[in-house]
Amino acid sequence: VLIIADLSKCIGAGQCVTFAPRCFTQDENTGLVVVGNDVRDEDSRSSVEAAVLACPSGALRIEG
Ligand code: SF4
C-alpha cells in the first residue's frame, strides 16, 4: 500500500490518524500528516481506505 500525502492540501484535521493510527501521525509542530512506516502491511489497507475517504481536504490517495 503506497500512500501519497499532499502536504499542500493537508489542513491537519487528523481524521487520518483516527482511522489509521498505525499508518499516520501528525507533525508535532505543524499538525500536518506524517505517513508512517507501517503501510506495507496489507491488513492496513481497509483502514487506510477509510482514512482517505475521511480526509476533509482530499490530501490522501492510495497507489497500488
Ligand atoms: S485527514 Fe487529511 S487533512 Fe487531516 S491530517 Fe490527515 S491528511 Fe491532513
Task: Give structural notes.
The chain has 64 residues and is of the alpha+beta class. 23% of the residues lie in helices and 22% in strands. It contains 2 helices and 4 strands, in the order E-H-E-E-H-E. It has helices spanning 15-19, 45-54; strands at 2-5, 24-26, 33-35, 60-63. A two-stranded antiparallel ribbon has the order 1-4. Strands 2-3 form a two-stranded antiparallel sheet. A hairpin with a 6-residue loop joins strand 2 (24-26) and strand 3. The model has no long low-confidence stretch (mean pLDDT 90). Bound molecules: iron/sulfur cluster (SF4).
Topology:
Blueprint: E1 2-5, H1 15-19, E2 24-26, E3 33-35, H2 45-54, E4 60-63
Antiparallel strand pairs: 1-4, 2-3
Bound molecules: iron/sulfur cluster (SF4).
Iron/sulfur cluster binds near residues 26 and 60.
